[in-house]
Amino acid sequence: MNPGGWSTTLASDASTVITHPVGMPGRGTPHAGIRMDPALWEEFDQVARANGTSRAAVLRAFVAWYVSRPDVAAPERPEPPKRERGKRSS
């Protein structure tokens, strides 16, 4: 546990834990906007939830890895979602 702070663990990869020094998720950290195709954003939400996590937790873990924070492993890529035969994602 991180006294005075909080940690994020990706459910699909228990070895990826991001520790934040202050505040609570959504309360103690500034909001960061992102522009993305709405269909892709919704699909991202569905895949994150199916893997027991959230878009925010996945993005925080990715960014911490991307900037080479010490002791942060690359987030695990989930299995692709099952799609109905004959349907293509847009």
Structural notes for this entry:
This protein has 90 residues and is an alpha+beta fold. The chain has one domain. It is 28% helix and 14% strand. It is built from two helices and two strands; from the N terminus they run ββαα. A two-stranded antiparallel ribbon has the order 1-2. A hairpin with a 2-residue loop joins strand 1 (6-10) and strand 2 (13-20). The radius of gyration is 15 Å and the shape is globular. The relative contact order is 0.19.
Please sum up the structure shown:
This protein has helices spanning 38-50, 55-66; strands at 6-10, 13-20. It is of the alpha+beta class and 90 residues long.
Instruction: Give the total of beta strands.
Output: 2
Q: List unreliable stretches of 5+ residues.
A: 1-5
- The span between the termini is 41 Å
- Biggest beta-sheet profile: 2 strands, antiparallel
Task: Note the overall shape.
Answer: globular
- Number of continuous helical runs: 2
Tally of domains: 1
Following the backbone from N to C, one meets helices and strands in this order, namely EEHH
Evaluate the radius of gyration: 15 Å
* Estimated share of beta-strand residues: 5-15%
User: What helical percentage do the residues reach?
Assistant: 25-40%
Structural class: alpha+beta
Give the overall average pLDDT: 76
Strand order of the largest sheet: 1-2
